[in-house]
Amino acid sequence: MKPVLRDWAELLRISALFTVPGDALAGAAAAGLRPNRRTALAVGSSLCLYEAGMALNDWADREEDAVDRPHRPIPSGRVKPAAALAAAAGLTGAGLALAYRAGRPAALVATALAGTVWAYDLRLKHTAAGPAAMAAARSLDLLLGATATGGKVAKPSLLPATALGAHTYAVTTVSRHETQGGSSGAPLAALAATTVLGALTAGRPPRRGSRPAPGDLARAGLAAAYAATAAKPLFHAALNPSPPLTQRAVGGGIKAMIPLQAALAARAGSLRTAAALTGLVPVARTLARKVSPT
C-alpha cells in the first residue's frame, strides 16, 4: 500500500469499515424485507457517515493525540488537520445525499445520525453522555437500513437496534480507558453485557423432543461467535487493564459487531443476509492485522 493511502487508511480505520454494512442489512432483515436498491443506498450512506466520524474524531483529538498517540496520522504530520476536516465534511454530505435518494424517511434518520456523529466527536465524547451518543449512532444506523428498505421505521427493527446500541455502549465505555488503562470495572461490565446479549440473541432452545430448525442453529452459532469474539479480550482486560489489553478489548468489541449483526439477521429469518455478513469476518480480520480498528 502506498504511504499516502496507508496514512488515510489508518486515519479512517479502514479495517473497521466492514462492521458497517451489517447495520443496514440487519435493519432490512428486521423489517421483514429483502435488501433492495434503497438498502444499497442506506449502506452507502452508512459507510460515508461512519468514515466522516473517523476523520472528524482524529481532527477533534489532534492535540490530545499529540501527547498520547503521536504516531497517529494527524499529530505525526502525515495528514493535515484541514484535510481531515474537509474529508469529514465531504463524507457527511455524500452520506446525506445517498440517504436522500433512498427517500425522505431515510433522509431524516440519516440527518439524525449525522448530527449524533458530529455532536459526539466535537462535544459529547469526553462527557458522561459519550457512550450513549455512540450507542445512539449505531442504533440509528440499523434503523436507517430498515427505514430506507421499507419506507418507514418498522417496529420489529427497534429491538435489534437496541441490542446493537447496547453492545456499542459497552465497547465505548471500555474505549474511554484505552490510552491509559487502569479500569477493570468497564471490561467486566462489558463482559456481562456481551454474555446477556449473546444469550438473548441466541433465543430459546427448542422444546424437548423437537428438532432445531436450521435457522435456530444458525442463530445460536452466530450468537456464540459474537460472544466468543468479544468475551476473551474483555476478560483479559479485566484481569490486567493495561493500555495494550484494553485496546485489544476494544478491537474485539468492534470485530464482534459482524457476528452480532449476522445473528440479528438470522433471528429475523434472513439466513442469506446472515451468511453474507459472516463472509466479511475473515476480510475484516485480515485488514485488522495491517490497520488497527481502534
TrEMBL record:
**What domain of life does the native source organism fall in?**
Bacteria
Alphabetically ordered keywords of this record: Membrane, Transmembrane, Transmembrane helix
Asked whether the keyword Metal-binding is assigned, the reply is: no
Q: What is its main location?
A: membrane
Localization annotation: Membrane
Record has Transmembrane as a keyword: yes
The membrane topology noted for this protein in its Swiss-Prot or TrEMBL record is: Multi-pass membrane protein
This protein is called UbiA family prenyltransferase
Please name the taxonomic classification of the source: Bacteria, Bacillati, Actinomycetota, Actinomycetes, Kitasatosporales
